[in-house]
Amino acid sequence: MARIAFQGELGAFSEEAIQRAFGADEEPVPCRENRDVARLVAGGAADAGVLPVENTLAGSVPASYDAILAEPTLHVVREVAIPIHHCVMASAGASLETLRSVESHPIALAQCAAWFTRHPSIEARAAYDTAGAAREVAHAGDLSRGALASRVAATRYDLTMLAENVEDRDDNQTRFVVVMREPAKLGPGARAKTILMLEVDNRPGALVHVLRPLSERELNLTKIESRPTGEPWTYRFVLEFEHLAHDPRLGEALGDVRREAAATRVVGTYARE
């Protein structure tokens, strides 16, 4: 049985992503922070990790990118997207009228902004995890406290659901990546995606020069994200682009990018869903 690390408590959406990626037979390993997931995998205490990187409503999850980039031995080997439906839950006896606050991960709260606007007497409070908030609310037994989490979390922590599907759009989804210590293996011609980290010199046009080789070889750039390096006012960029596995144009493009960039790292090349 493989050990799969994830951020949060049992009942979190990340546990559902583990089941989607690996099936139900592996052991989910809860972690407090995204960095803890990456460290466990890099250090060999977990066989793989699952981290959310993007939500269709709330956008990117910077902590996940930072966690992956902080561990140079990790590789992204797969991605999965799952539908996200949030529920408001509380201890038995509570109602929407008794609630004064609802707790959840900040990114989950951001996906339900319209619901909080419709319920101005209920305060949105940040917690480190959706299922963690459900667990804390269950332990407290305070009828003024609610949690925003999944139906699975409500069942696991014996909470009463007071409102269902409160996300701003019913097609809400989160994309997760799987990280491991070994890269994915792809056959020639497979539909693939590459995640590339790069740093450029602080000069006009530097980013344009490193992006041009991808465009010239018709590699479809699907995302670009900037993250601080830790040094004041300097940044690294995370690029995601699509291609066919073992396409010679990929090697040519990466060669040109490396000549233009101050630093590069292929974070992962894996099969597109």
Largest sheet: 6 strands, mixed
CATH superfamily of the largest domain, by name, is Periplasmic binding protein-like II
Using the coordinates shown, work out and report the CATH topology of the largest domain: D-Maltodextrin-Binding Protein, domain 2
User: What is the strand content?
Assistant: 25-35%
Summarize the structure in words.
- This protein has 273 residues and is α/β, with parallel strands linked by helices.
- The protein folds into 3 domains: 89 residues, D-Maltodextrin-Binding Protein, domain 2 (3-Layer(aba) Sandwich), CATH 3.40.190.10; 77 residues, Periplasmic binding protein-like II (D-Maltodextrin-Binding Protein, domain 2, 3-Layer(aba) Sandwich), CATH 3.40.190.10; 81 residues, 2-Layer Sandwich (Alpha-Beta Plaits), CATH 3.30.70.260.
- The chain contains 9 helices and 15 strands.
- Strands 1, 2, 3, 4, 5 and 11 form a 6-stranded mixed sheet that branches. It has a 5-stranded mixed sheet with strand order 8-7-9-6-10.
- It is elongated and about 65 Å long.
- The model has no long low-confidence stretch (mean pLDDT 96).
Key words describing this protein structure:
six-stranded mixed beta sheet; D-Maltodextrin-Binding Protein, domain 2; Alpha-Beta Plaits; alpha/beta; single chain; about 270 residues; 9 helices; 3 domains; five-stranded mixed beta sheet; 15 strands
